[in-house]
Write a structure and sequence with these properties.
Number of helices: 12
Strand order of the largest sheet: 1-2
Order of helices and strands: EEHEEEHHEHHHHHHHHEEH
Oligomer: single chain
Largest sheet: 2 strands, antiparallel
Radius of gyration: 21 Å
Length: 346
Amino acid sequence: MEIEGEAYDNEYNYSEDDEMYNNADQSDNEEEMDNNTDDDSGEEDMENIDAQVENDAQVDTQVVDNENVEASAPQANKRGMTRLVQWRARFEKNGEEKWPLTFDALGRVGGVHRPKFSSFMGDIVRAGVGLRYLEWRKVPIEDKNKMWAAIQKYFKIEDFRRRAIMVRLGGLLRSFRRNMLEKHIRPNLAKPTVLEKVPKMYRTIVKKEDWDRFVAYTRSEEFEAASKIGKEVRANYTYDHSMGRGGYVFLREKLVQNKEIAADDCPSRAFMWRKGRVNKEGEYKTPVVKGIADDIAENETKINAGSVTVEPGTDALTLVLGKERGGYLKGIGMRELISLWRLWSL
């Protein structure tokens, strides 16, 4: 099922007249990020799609949707939708130069501007696509061109990186839809009057007709069948990571900062996989994860010592967890990175 609507005619430059996005000046906290395997996923998750560390000088506007919370109930602090209204306004008013981005050897965004860039991508995909389409591949090329133009307006990024960025945007779109489903639809299935309204925090970027179609789709047999398959797949995600939204890129930067690896090191997949599943105290989330991590470490030691012989392309992670499927390389990232990693690790 495809959800369509009128295309947005702007370049995702929002006015500060919208008061609902100007009620908080807060920096995002990286530690509040979703620690599930979807980062976002990918992406990276890319449906992971949405919390960041910001410099003190960078001001984001956020809102918290308390529409469905009873007035008598204690209000917990919640993270709202990140918008970059004031940042864009300052950028254009001051005639700032485009923010440079840095990429690692595998083409993944890193550096000091990574948090802002990630928030920016989440913002433009929510506003530029939102709920009009259920699949990224259904989004018209014209809309994708607008989003790419908006990215290049504020950030220095070469044209050849467009494909990887488009993949990331697709993941962020999935995250947005999942967030709408889990936070605004499923909790209110017994409240039809609530589902008749677009959630307050999204009313300036989601049209009523798009919201109604999306709600109807999430209650259809087609959706239930797809959801069942998704749940079965998710049930196999036994070894959730603790890297947050930044994924392996952010993890590698932290390892370099902590001098656990050198800046030009190419750590093994097994090493990165294990590091991505420990908390600040160096502990694994569950005994099961620890057991798998120990098996991986033991196999890597044997391979390095020559007591176990493996074919090219096979490592400790492959021996313990099996071959990769679905275009994602454990400890590295998406399929676009696999060939680069193989060359880099020679």
